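Two records follow; treat each independently.
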Amino acid sequence: MLRLLALVLLTVLAAGCATTTPPRPTADAPGGAALPTIAAKTAGMERRDGFLPVYWDAAAGKAWLEVPALDTDLLYVVSLAAGLGSNDVGLDRGQLGGERVVRFERVGPRVLLVQPNLRFRADTDNAAERLAVEDAFAPSVVWGFDVGAEGEGGAVLLDATDFVVRDAHGVAQRLKGTGQGAFALDRARSALVPAELKAFPQNTELEARLTFASDAPGRYVRDVAADPTAVTVRVRHSFVALPPPGYTPRPFRPASGYFPTGYADYAVPIGEEVERRFITRHRLQCAAPPDASGLCDPVEPIVYYLDPGTPEPVRGALLDGARWWTDAFRAAGFRDAYRVEVRPDSVDPLDVRYNTIQWVHRATRGWSYGASVTDPRTGEILKGAVSLGSLRVRQDYLIAEGLLAPYTGENAAGFDPEGDPMLALALARLRQLSAHEVGHTIGLAHNFAASTQGRASVMDYPAPLAAVAEGGVDLSDAYGVGLGDWDVQAVRYGYTPDESALPAILAETRARGLLFLTDADARPAGAASPVAALWDNGADAVAALRSQMAVRRAALDRFGEAAVREGRPLATLEEVLVPLYLGHRYQVEAASHLVGGVAYAYTERGDGSAPPAPVPGDVQAAALGALLEAVTPAALALPDAARLIPPRPPGYGATRELFDRRTGLTFDPVAPAETAATLVFGFLLDPDRAARLAYQPALDGSLPGLADVLERTTTAVRTAPAATPYEMALRRATLSAWVDGLLGLAADDDAAPEVQAAAVDHALALGAQLSADGGGADGALDRWLADRIFRFLDREYDPEGGVERLDAPPGAPIGSR
């Protein structure tokens, strides 16, 4: 019995020892040593207090990040603080790299920065159901840190130096992807930027100066970098506090005009759509119920701050345009909910609490951007960040110079700013641009149908509306002023406090005939929508093209020395000529949408919208006629002054803003016509458009087919009147461009079989015609083109080529392919 009692006691004691862990005074450190306190570790360092406190250790060149609370979600954003300055490469100052929700998780002596996979979720109270989705889709570990010190409440201190001094923005990949060479981060020439280690109440900013080295840099890098073999940019890492509760995501509807965000919710009932979609917008809430006027005061207004480095008169124009949105927020039910100011010294542009508009410089003209820092969980915009390219305003000025040729008499050397018509046009466009980019940062997408509805939206890309006037061109109505009707309706949908009113707002927008079509409907060369296009004007694309051609001809007839200021090299006339001569290119694109076009809208069942319908045959025929008029020798001919542009002098080397040429240093009088004709034929012969043309007569016999379009184009090109030997040379250049385009379509294995068949058949017939007609002034070219066609048709068969057949949708696991 005594032995049994002793055995029992020993067993109990052993069990107690097995389940008791001796307390450790602090977390494990490498080698088992106790970690110091944060206060002790950071003694002598410079502290920047804020959301996540930052410590700068000047002696070691290190940045230490204090994380007060682990396992807490926050936002992580990478951006480019200082860029390359090349629009072609696209590494611009202020460029955002996307938002990620992350959390710091501790595992023994290390802390992992974990990015949960929020693209797939289960919105349910069932923890097991949520876990099933979380475990189905991989999260990511962004970085791993060693814990350097500990503080109260589980706070940890992390060495953030290596985390920040790395290519988190993908600079080397971008340089390689744009053909600029194999660059690699040179750590010896990279370091933190101490002055830009900042902490604010709701965000912490860490920044590094990164140098990327290459022994074979590309052209665009050589154009802009101080030393193209060592490109230095600044990359910023931002940790942002997620917003507090109280924001209600607003449902995305395709016709609302907003950018969508969302996720797949696997907890929705069977039969409902798994994908949940919301719009992106700022949090704008009433401080109290609306008063008798129907308006309420906001809890916190939306304020944008303009870069004080923006010069006048640009600054005033940008403020004016950005402020246009004030009326739209009032229409949405708010009083004094939106304003724009010049950024005071007390506002740091890195502080996430402030929306910013910055003035960005590049070596070449390029795009402007309206970007946002957005909570990916809900679509709430936390910070709007507008970047406006400074050379855009100069391009608009250049366009106006070509249209007006204004430098005559007392204005030969230039204009006083107060009476400068080119400056007036450029600033009018800048106001519109400012409103446009701010529109993106309040959540709105492009609306490329608005220009066909009387300037219904600043979210379109506007072309300067010009008219032929006595003695020249009238630009008095070049650009609109203020928002359009669609803009106001869109802001009402996104920001009205009464969510129950949303269906009625969409119905009202639809009833007023306000259309919304965006990038996918307008940008492709083979786009089908007759109303969605960039840089166009007017509801009738055919009439607008003919009007544009008339303006272009009136300006070309006046073109000459008066298009450049006195004292400038006459060779710079070409810079003015290029946007003038090709000023019709976007209206050509808009008109081409009618050929094989299909009218449609973003419809929903029960909304009463009309189904997709082909553009009527007579309208398609009229559009083709207008396009073919644009490639006649008379339309393509340059004035004598343009043909006498001298070669480039020293200090004014050739740039890509000039026409390509085959005449060496001298101006090529034929190449511009070939360029313009190639643009027209490129739209007509796009494989997508060609397929619609090939198929549409089978559905409606009143519509033209592809063979009809090819035949009509060939006849028009070959028989176009040519009144002078110069115009005959232009006709030959146009015919050559047409044959090139036709053979390109015939050889395009991505084109539909019926399209390739029609192109080959027409090429065969054209070759026979050119061979038979190989006499007269065009005889040599006719025979050369005929031989080229026959050599193309007789080319060796490639068994690896041919039409790439369409894949069937996957059948497994239900069936097989």
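The next record belongs to a different protein.
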Amino acid sequence: MSLSLSEQGRLAWAVDQAWRGALARLALVWAGLIALFWRDWAAMGHQWWDSSTYNHILMVPAILGWLVTQRLPDLWRLPVAMWRGGLGLMGAALLLWALGALASVAQITQIAAVAMLIAAVPLVLGLRAALGLLFPLAYMGFLVPFGDEAIPLLQTITAKITIALVHISGIPARIDGVFIATPAGLFEVAEACSGVKFLVAMIAFGALAAHVCFVSWGRRAAFMALCVAAPILANGVRAWGTVYVAQYYGAAVAGGVDHIIYGWFFFAAVIAGVIALGWRFFDRAAGAPMLDVGAVMALRLPAMRGISAGACFGALAAMVLAAQGWVMAADRLAAPMPARIALPEVAGWHRVDYAPRHVWEPRAGGADHRLLGRYADARGHEVDVFFALYASQGPGKKAGGFGEGALRPETGWSWQAPGPDVPGAHSDRLLAGGPTERLAQTSYKTGDLVTGSNARLKLANIIDRLLLRRRATMLLILSAEEGGAFRAADSLGAFRASAGPIGDWMDAAAKGL
């Protein structure tokens, strides 16, 4: 049965009206969510604009707009209606936000803020319309700044690639963690040289190119693997080039060349190389539609139970208020604090003046009490002890936050390599000019938990705040300098043996015993 032109016009008008109303409601929900969670969006925007690692994210909104316009002619053919099941997705995003806020992990709250906008699409437009926008919705994940967590691993990988190439090129060199010593000087694979900025940008580019240029999932996976491997390997080559130039033209020239290559040509060359390698394998036909309406309509989906706009907005408002209210209540929690604390006595050890060869003082921002001192025993072992006590954990007072603990940014100390494993502690080797080496072992305690894992600490803090329990958090850093009468690891082992269970010792410090 065919429709007359007038009937087709009325049907098109009805479809347009349905989509216009749905898009207006979606814009209203998005605006409300961005306003209610503005702190998270502002924090993301600050990173997009001010951090060179995340400058590429400024292009993501434009890419999202382009991806949607590629689907518009076919998207209007999909049915649109509010879907009750979307409230479950929104509830999951709000729960994730609450967990992130309770743990004071900004990246989790930022992921959740983006997830809320994504969940609003099936809620307001319906499940089939959301499936028609599946890739643009997934690509919204690149709005979240990520990658800093991989910096230590990337530093290590880059250093290993560099030393291998340095040896192949005939330059005598030795490696110690992320430091490479050559006749031209000591080179550090610093955080800025880890290649993280190019890796995260390449992953975002690779995901877009894999979707637009390929149809085969196998080819997409291979292309993404190339987009991960290429910047890592290329960064190792770049670091080797800096070392190589320094051998013949000096470190100053090498630094200038590295800056030019790193800032202007490196990423463009890597992208060009990846595209050249993948070009012959592109299998999406030119002009092929980005949305297969027939496939979406053929999917067998659960019953689409609708919901009125008023009921939807009311339920959404209630969930948002519950999440934010719970976090506000948890933010007011604070464990009782003693008037003073003191480093406890340790059998066979005595306190001596704290006189490090290179100034070292850990950071414990927001802590209610801090102590730093040095112990020595009769044999000549020396150990530095830093202890901090927190009434609560939150923004500006996170025992395991970035820049907190043994390695403070911009203090002359650099991360060198992981230290030996120690039960209940996280171990790091640090290096400062001189050079001065230090082994630092970091432990956290809350309740009965004693751990060196920042993740386990955050999980315990989340549970406490979810249950509205008032528990103090403790930070202990035991450290020792290398180059004395004993190895740092031996001095720390001797101190731990004398101090007994480290959790009990931390409790004694918190009580001022």
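Discussion point: The longest helix spans residues 217-249. How would you locate this feature using only the token line?
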